[in-house]
Amino acid sequence: MRPRPSLMYVAAAAADTWLAGHRDPGVRRWRRLTKPALTPLLAWRLHRAPATPLRTPTLLALAAGGIGDVALLREGRRAFLVGLTSFAAGHVAYLLGWRRLSAGTAMTAAPGPRAAVLAGLLVGPALAHAAARREPVLGVPVAAYAALLASTVAVATHLDDDVPADVRRRLAVGAWTFLASDTLLATRSFVMDEPPAWAERGVMATYATAQWLLSDAARRA
């Protein structure tokens, strides 16, 4: 029987989501196995599929995300900045790939990009301010990352009509879900003093879903 990276990913994502909210550090230590497995499984699944225009940039984004996943298993400012930088590099890779499929019309005239900019303006400064109150050095990086993430959503929601509808749908939903995940992550990190289990698990559930949707869109593009 051939290995099924799809099923392996679902199992790893479900396990890591549950472990993320566990209060026992000994149990949570198993995330050292589950979390680093996520993006390699998606990359394996994507690599096995026929080549598409989005395969290479998505593989690069998944590689950057994998570095970020490992970094964020640790606590502290340095680990957070490494994770932030890695995910920023991943979003740049996504953007470079998606720009090839972008619609020719101006973004300012489309509802998707306008909603993304509005979300960035509402969420980005607030979370950057919260980050700066915890650690002043984090304010500017968080603000820059929020702007990059909003740009990712804007491009993902402004693709050419020639792109298959299921690809456009997966990219749009995946990008918005990524934004929701990182917003929850920042809220948990900088706003909540004692994050509840649902917040920890919500971050991973939305993150795993987002990466699945974006990589699956790349397989179909």
Query: How many structural domains in the coordinates?
Result: 1
Task: Describe the sheet with the most strands.
Answer: none
User: What is the structural class?
Assistant: mainly alpha
Let me know the number of strands.
0
Our Rg estimate from Cα atoms comes to: 17 Å
Straight-line N-to-C gap: 28 Å
Q: What percentage of residues falls in helices of 4 or more residues? A: over 70%
Q: Please state the overall shape, judged from the principal axes of the Cα atoms.
A: globular
Instruction: List SSEs in N-to-C order.
Output: HHHHHHHHHH
Count of DSSP helices?
10
- Give the strand content: under 5%
Low-confidence parts: none
Mean pLDDT: 91
